[in-house]
Amino acid sequence: MSSEFELIARHLAPGPAADAAGMSLGVGDDCALLAPTPGTRLAVSVDTSVADVHFPADAPASTIGHRALAVSLSDLAAMGAEARWCLMSLTLPEADDAWVADFAAGFHALCDASGVTLAGGDVTRGELAVGVTVMGEVPEGEALTRSGARPGEVIAVTGALGGGAGGLARWQAGERDPDDALLRRYLRPEPRLAAGLALRELASAAIDVSDGLLADLGHLCVASGVGAALTPEALPLAEGLVAALGDDDVMDAALRGGDDYELLVTLPEAHLAPARARLAAEGLALTAIGRVTDIPGVAGVADDGATGWQHFSGDTP
Amino acid sequence: MSSEFELIARHLAPGPAADAAGMSLGVGDDCALLAPTPGTRLAVSVDTSVADVHFPADAPASTIGHRALAVSLSDLAAMGAEARWCLMSLTLPEADDAWVADFAAGFHALCDASGVTLAGGDVTRGELAVGVTVMGEVPEGEALTRSGARPGEVIAVTGALGGGAGGLARWQAGERDPDDALLRRYLRPEPRLAAGLALRELASAAIDVSDGLLADLGHLCVASGVGAALTPEALPLAEGLVAALGDDDVMDAALRGGDDYELLVTLPEAHLAPARARLAAEGLALTAIGRVTDIPGVAGVADDGATGWQHFSGDTP
Q1: CATH class label, A3-139
Q2: How far is CA A105 from CA A12, A56, A195, B100, B128, in A?
Q3: Which residues make up the binding site for Mg(2+) 5 (chains A, B) (predicted)?
């Protein structure tokens, strides 16, 4: 790596909290050495976010850092795992110190808020892209998977839907106010880590809504060998969505919009009230939006063949 | 992800051996769930290889898959860690099924040869790049680090040097025979995992030679707070290097060429013979090339300011 890029890499060094986080050796050796907690399973996932595919290349650098980590942490949330460590691979076209400082600030702030320690990474030259590997822990046998849904259970979703699609629409319409509620949903999604932990013993299956509600519900149904009957009028809509998109597009954004990073779960009816109470303590709603059935497929919505959001580029993936 | 890319992703699914490798849940859920071995530390590292920066974009796809994994595994080797799992993030400009099948074959073959299980990954669209996160295990307190070198110890290197630079030169000269020894060194480097394990109790410090001998020796010396006196005429040269590069460039390739992925270690003199015996059992040489000193810097070579190889592009990183 050139010295120019080495300087850049210093922005990505782990903080002094690393020792306390079960990390005996971090950036600066060939590997980081981590101390997994006995009795837990290690949940691992990687997601790469590519400029102008998964996010606008000219978005504020701090939001690109936040968002790339949030997308990966959302997978830990969906497993009911406690976030512990991450590794980041940053590819960027030039060594722009100010940009990287801002990027790193957004990344580190979410690390701190989520209790995650950056354990290593690399910086390479190329088209702007951020790959984030996350590692979390979950007690043996307690992970939330996609395959546990059973007919008769309630389908529920945390928070609100359509914010990702609505925020993207606002960005594309020229909105740049970082405090705009919808834009914030798109650029700075909050991974539902606390909700995932709270739902561990109550939910029977979980997935995060990244590709769009219908698409991700479809993944969950296939993995569980079940079907679903949705109640579209029950879908919780992100604040400001009707004003931003108009009545005609709201339902499509909630059903097929991606990048919401809410948790979609199934749970026995009797677990709904206690689950709501736990999430209310986190300031988060849990809304029942349908039932698990034994008929394959998703009933209750028009089948126009479109499932899954097409991301920023209007193309996939 | 588009269905086109989902098809592609199937080439990267883990094999049936996954269950046996301490992996209770792999590709197909939000995270893979791994079972770390009690009493061990988890060694983790990530490296991203970008087309035409770290490897020629038109290299055979199987070698790109092999090489991206090898580069990351080399970091585990340098820690004395046993390779266990990996995650792969593949970014590619188009969904070319045949290319990905070949790429995956090279990747999976090295997984099998190294005892590594692919635990997850993603496929995204963009400029060709491969990010590989590796996870290995090492008994607590037995990891080889960069910081353990002590004055008076022997500096030694596994295998031979200059093969990376020599192979790249042959590629650039038009050589395309996959059995060409030097080209093979460049395109299909062999991570020294067995050597790392064998040297665990014998070496006091280790690093892999990725940036070039001088650069990596410099990293090790800084981390250990020591200096080094090299004996350049002792450097083991890759087979065919003189014929490929000519006398004038051979020493530069061995000292400053990168991508050799040999292990550079320091060890007490009394450990040299037993270390050689263990590596001989693996068919690998261990050559003494200098001494650790208490004078900062690397003595024994002309200081022309150039340290570290400039990778494929002739530019960095």
Answers
A1: alpha beta
A2: 9, 18, 25, 36, 28
A3: 211
